[in-house]
Amino acid sequence: MEDSIDFYDVLAPMFDVMTDWDARLAAEGPFLLTMLEAAGARSVLDAACGSGGHALWLAGEGYDVIGTDASPVMIALARRKAAEAGLDARFETTDLSGLPNLTGLTPRDAVLCLGNSLPHLLTQDELAEALRAMGSALRPGGLLVLQNLNYDLRWEKQPRWFAAQGGVLDGEEVLVWRFADYLSAEERIAFNIALFSKRDGRDWERQVHTTLQRPLFQRDLLAALDAAGFTQIETYGGMTVPTTPFDPARSGDLVVTARLA
Q: Among candidates 110, 104, 26, 131, which has minimal Cα distance to 64?
């Protein structure tokens, strides 16, 4: 079992291969722009930004963007992509709890935490600490946007297999296959990635890596947001326009917007 930083350091080189950013941003971008415009937001912190897909897209849309992630390999990838695209976006390595210590960070109009990052926080106290840290990066009245899977449904249905995603990395075929083991007694999920690569036409090489997640139920997230001083909390079933309300029995995602009191 690996901690989440080591887990994502290993995944980072394949992250953009397994993510169709054009399709994802076309689907999620209108929701983000709608929420940011409604909040009058021009400066954004993308916390747990991964390889920087959302942050770089927002920079291209004219936003003042800082991206952070606990994985130094992800941040190196994001910086390289920013330089190659000629985009002015800052990327720094820190976990969520370290946001208050980020050098030169002035209060942002909006903070994003997308892509199912919060389930890597394994206790309610860690979740509350992370939300308070995100709040510390916001101006009063600033916007928070969170996107996670709907664990109210997933914990009930316990789907094991995710779709395999493949492509080409450095001229070689690669494949990422994600799957989950549900540890009911501990109320935890062992999140696994199987990484396959084919070098010089030889047989497939494979690695399997595992990290723990905590199923993030709606009640726990809303309680932590309230404790961290957030108000005007709204929940949605996905990042779509028009918006859809969150339905614990049906929605694929739990998306939350909130304002800092």
A: 110
